[in-house]
## 1
Amino acid sequence: MLKLKNVSKYYYQAGVIAEGFSKVNLELHLGEFVVITGESGSGKSTLLNVLSGLDSYEDGEMYINGEETSHYTEEDYLNYRRRYVSNIFQNFNLVNSYTVYQNIELAMLMNGKKKKEIKKYVNELIEKVGLKKYRNTKASKLSGGQKQRVAIARALANDTPIIVADEPTGALDSEAAKNILKILHDISKNKLVIIVTHQKEDVEKYATRLIKMHDGKILENKLVEKINLDKDLVSKEVDSIKLGSKLRLGIRNAFNIPIKFILMFVIFMLITVTLITNYASLKMAENEELGNAYNNFFNDTDNRRIILTKKDKTSFTEEDYNNINNLDNILFLTKYDLLNDIELFLESDNLYLNGNIKINTYKNVDVGNIPLNDNEVIVKGSKENWYLSNNLDTILQNEFILESDLRMSIKIVGVIYDNSFTDYDLEFYVSENLSNKLLKEEIRNKSDAIFKLDNNYVYSSYGSPVTILESDKLSNGEIYISDDLSGYCENYNCLNKEVNLKIKNIFYEEELNGKIVKVLTKENALKLVNRKYEELYNTIYISSEEYNKLFLKESYQSSVYVKEIKDLNKTGEELKNLDLEILKIKDAKHNDAEMVTQIFKIFKLILIVILVVVLFFISYFIMKIIYKSRNSYYTTIRTLGGTKRVCVSILMYELINLSMFTYLIFLLFINLIKYQIIHNEYFNELIKYISIREYVIVYIILLLLSILMAYRYGRKIFKKSIIKTYGERI
Ligand code: ADP
Ligand code: MG
């Protein structure tokens, strides 16, 4: 039973009170087919809205099954509507982007039914309203009469005891109108149908009660057919929408309006690309700064380099090298780390070249040939390098002298161009043999030596007291000395005297004893050691085997170079797990402009943060505009019993779907670039600086935007009543 006692409804608009209807008394029951007529503005719609709980009233009392409703809150009304009322609107209020089936199904999903369970019933309803042929047609493609039939089917699917129809035939031609009224009548048994219409003649034959309104009052309330008026309204069973349904609607809504989908795709993509590219270029700039930094101790300041020693200070074994090489991100490993910091100095009459040393593994060169012996090397550098462009021929023809105790002559036989080099950096690729010789020299130079000749200590005013060189003419234990050292021996005669040598460096200590077999003089120097006497000062020669034993020990310090600079830290951690001490070369660098760089970095970081915030809000407002057009959808959801939470979660799933889809496309794009299927230099360079963490952070920003948007939007549409939102739309 639905009863109005002296109920009045007023509208307040711009300080003026307008009367919807006043002092209406009415009692309606299950089983009635109530027809309301009256001229325009007489208050029919207002009455229907109050009866169906779409609008509140100001005065009097409305009873639902005897229960007072004047204290009802929004939520109480929502509950009332869910249990008792379906509306059929003059302008249908279908979801235009849904098919006939989906529109009808929606009402049942909103009531917690499962998609599969209701399929048969929905199809029956479609048949009942004669739309079998249009089952999969979008509502927007239907004629007015067809739309209204969908609306009726939806009201039936909702299965509430009260069906309220406000001018359901107003927009239809008379044939279609008759049809609709008939269907309404057919379904009215055991329900309370309240209908406002101008089609008086057509509807009178069905009516059990006729109400005529005029100027906000009931002028006539005529019971046409006596029916059992004792029946109470029976609430339908209500359940809230299932999570699966919400997810499904979210997915459907994400894609079923192409223009909205495209706009949202563009927004999400814009945010993603802007964030990723900005972050990457910040990283790139940071890296370049480091590239410009220099270091006094290490010559090779490549940021990809990590220097390794073992935690227990022992030397590296083959097993250690295998373990290191088995890590993912290793570009190459230099067993003797010192090699990385030796520079090769080449000198000829008019040219002076220097650069880092690498062991050659190249089988091809850009210009010239690959080296065939220890005296031949490859040089690598930028095409813009002054030596490698203007002076290429000279370089390839010249004989160079290696600046070293080796006094070798060197020929550059091949050139490799690499434009990642600066215009002044060069790199030399040498034979392993030559690299070993240079390495020994380097270790020798970095070692302290205590030298005793004929039991006397030999001192020097700088560095090591003697220069130790190797000669393959000597056997172990045999020694040559330059004759300037003779003063340390008794009677200036060093021949056959004992020599004791202790070598000490940061890694090890070694000792050597020997006997002097020759003193190098003006006469014999060239013949014995192939060197001018004038060059021999404080020099001793030992056998090659002993020289190797002193200076080419197992390696105590190695370096790896990583492939992906973005994973440098990860690789560092993995190396630590192998019981290694690590030093990332980028951490060992000094930068003269450190202060300025730091400020610059902070400044850029602030800019990025501002960018993110601005972008976030711009996107938010554009999305808000786009979603304004969705008001009718969510109002429809509301009329079907959707709470704020339901609306928010459907929208949230929609936005999450859109963002996920966009992001997957973005990741696909990135991978196509990464695997060179799409060629794009710019992105290819940028993505080197982006790791999983950054990808995750960017997606989290998209997610946050989606969630915020859904909550704000949900709050906004629920600020207004259903009637108001509809009013704005019509
Ligand atoms: P009907 O449906 O019979 O044409 P309505 O119920 O729409 O009549 O309107 C009844 C009266 O209430 C009219 O005078 C109308 O101007 C007024 N009215 C209806 N809706 C509003 C509203 N949203 N704001 C102010 N006045 C309204
Ligand atoms: Mg009206």
Note: The chain has a mean pLDDT of 88.
## 2
Amino acid sequence: MNLLPLSPPGEPPVRVMTIAGSDSGGGAGIQADLRTFAMLGLHGCVAVVAVTVQNSVGVRAFHEIPTDIIAGQIAAVTSDIGISAAKTGMLASAEIIETVAHTWTSEKLTVPLVVDPVCASMHGDPLLHHSALDSLRNVLFPLATVITPNLDEVRLLVGIDVVDDASQRDAARALHDLGPQWVLVKGGHLRSSAGSPDLLYDGTGFFEFNTQRIDTGHDHGAGDTLAAATTCALAHGYSVPEAVAFAKDWVTECLRAAYPLGHGHGPVNALFRLRS
Ligand code: PXL
């Protein structure tokens, strides 16, 4: 696959930020984001919003970081180091979502923002209080360049059960009505085809991405990695369709190289890049 350009030696790499939760097992969340940022040659900055207690089998607990510390991390980084794009992952609560949105606006940030509306882990353990869905819909989505829900998140956010092309398009329209510039409805197991049909929509046109489906039991962090790679490509000036196409190829290679870990689900593997 084509990779992103590197800065010349001695010059700073392009900077991006993840606003997300920590995964103690190292497979998803901030740890996955930073791996993709680094393997694509970008400098990753972080606003930690929550610390999860988890392993390959499930999420046992999480602790939310105080909102002044979350706002402080975003303001400290953006006012000094500067970023070319950012992404959000696990945001845990309505208060945290509103803090992130408020800080984004008060710091007058205009760079691309990828919002991955993480609601639960792949084991089904909650990572967002359901009372926070309104804040996602009403406060954060209008600031997003692109939102990247999976089918479970689509059901929670707009109440649409995506079962075919038509319902996937209905879901994209309903989500776009909430205010993001672009919506990527990730198809996952939809249509049980050999592909992984993702649908991108900007209010006018639909773009379909049918990357080869890699069936592995080890896909922890796949959604985070897709959103992180999209963020990197946007930071390099790609258009949203170009960035999503790039990110789909990246996550496909990470899935191909996934490895087992512990007794449950292993992670996707951005480190494959070290061998190529
Ligand atoms: O993959 C979604 C995700 C995001 N962030 C954190 C997670 C998970 C899934 O487990 O733990 C911290």
Note: Residues 133 and 156 are 8 Å apart (CA to CA).
